[in-house]
UniProtKB/TrEMBL annotation:
Alphabetized UniProt keyword annotations: Membrane, Transmembrane, Transmembrane helix
Membrane-spanning segments: 51-73, 79-98, 110-130, 160-182, 223-242, 248-267
Protein name, as recorded: Fatty acid desaturase
Key word DNA-binding present: no
UniProt keyword annotation of Transmembrane present: yes
Pfam families for the chain: FA_desaturase (PF00487)
Fatty acid desaturase domain span: 81-345
Top-level lineage group: Bacteria
């Protein structure tokens, strides 16, 4: 594991730390950080529905409006600009799927349904693909282990893994059409295929070893309703293209915009963590340090890490704080803790620096592995 907690200049361990060569058990937590973060943000846990609704609806209107403009505008330059705006807006709207997994059901009546109707089903990414999966990533003893569906030790893998991780996401729209237009209907009458679809193709995961369990209870009803809606939508779209009702140009532009949003999210995922854990159980503080904050004054993270995702490390520390309160939570914690404390060690400055660090880390790991093999 790469993250040991602070040491004194003579190498002795400070309180609540472990040596780098200690047995593979969770390190002691920085209890001051955990207590302070909980104390100063106690009043920030309530969601503000007006912010959620306004943000989602505005993002959806801008996203789809810009998509229509990209399809209809004759000027190539203006069409590309409209496409970029559409990618950013729909990416922001799509990012609310993360909030759906954390807000309590009933706190905003109709929000889950509206998000799926506006974003989830049209983009073939209904919320059941994330709900019931993402919460496993936050489980204390699952994070960073082989049981975490959203974790890969990318910093410890081959250098080509990093660009491949991003490039493969561009094919997501094709995979989603196959999943919903073909596999979903067939799986309803072929039980072995259904098992495969549920286990392997029903979750937004990056861990290839993860296998999803079949849904139960009320969630099963929600899953099936969303899946049927997405399946019908995929079949209707493909039929419209095949019959000429939907022009191929319009379809390809829409697919390119959807792919752009997925690629942007994959790049954001690439730097959401440092990906340095080798599969062992981590303490809360270690999980925090393996995650990334990109706080102000930088402005670009508001575009590539929207809806509070620029405070991803803080979110792992306080998963109950809604996205609109994370900025205030960061300010309060930073004011309450001294410079140089553990809290500041998860703060980073830019996307490019994080990607470069990940590439260097994987290249260094590959080099050391090769040296060890040949020695």
């Amino acid at each position: 594991m790469k993250h040991s907690l602070p040491q004194a200049t003579d190498g002795t361990l400070l309180p609540n730390t472990v040596a780098a060569d200690a047995p593979k058990v969770p390190a002691f937590d920085d209890n001051e950080l955990i207590r302070t973060a909980a104390k100063v943000t106690r009043d920030l846990n309530a969601v503000r529905p007006m912010i959620y609704w306004t943000d989602l609806l505005a993002s959806a209107v801008i996203g789809y409006g810009a998509m229509i403009a990209a399809i209809m505008i004759e000027s190539t330059g203006l069409a590309i600009l409209a496409g970029i705006i559409s990618v950013l807006a729909l990416y922001r709207a799509g990012s609310f799927i993360h909030e759906l997994t954390h807000i309590r059901r009933g706190s905003m009546p109709g929000f889950h349904f509206t998000w799926n109707a506006l974003i989830g089903v049209p983009l073939l990414l209904p919320s059941f693909m994330y709900e019931g999966v993402h919460n496993l990533h936050h489980m204390r003893k699952r994070y960073g282990t082989v049981e975490d569906p959203e974790y890969l030790p990318l910093a410890l893998m081959k250098p080509y893994t990093v660009p491949l991780f991003v490039l493969v996401s561009a094919l997501a729209p094709i995979g989603l059409f196959i999943r919903y237009a073909l596999l979903a209907p067939l799986s309803m009458v072929i039980p072995p295929l259904r098992k495969l679809v549920v286990e392997r193709y029903s979750g937004l995961v990056i861990n290839p070893e993860f296998r999803r369990r079949s849904p139960e209870g009320e969630f099963k009803r929600q899953w099936y309703a969303q899946e049927i809606a997405a399946s019908i939508w995929a079949i209707v779209l493909l039929t419209a293209v095949a019959t000429g009702f939907l022009p191929m140009k319009a379809f390809l532009i829409a697919v390119a915009i959807a792919a752009g949003s997925v690629v942007l999210n994959q790049i954001r995922t690439l730097v959401a963590h440092l990906w340095e854990n080798d599969g062992e159980v981590m303490s809360v503080t270690e999980q925090y340090l393996d995650s990334v904050n990109v706080p102000p004054p930088g402005l670009l993270p508001a575009l590539w890490a929207p809806v509070g995702l620029r405070y991803h490390a803080l979110h792992h520390l306080l998963p109950g704080v809604p996205y609109h309160a994370l900025g205030e939570a960061h300010r309060r914690i930073a004011e309450a803790l001294p410079k140089g404390s553990t809290y500041y060690r998860a703060n980073h400055t830019s996307l490019f620096g994080l990607v470069a660090g990940l590439v260097r880390g994987s290249a260094g790991q590959a080099s050391s592995t090769q040296s060890g093999t040949t020695s």
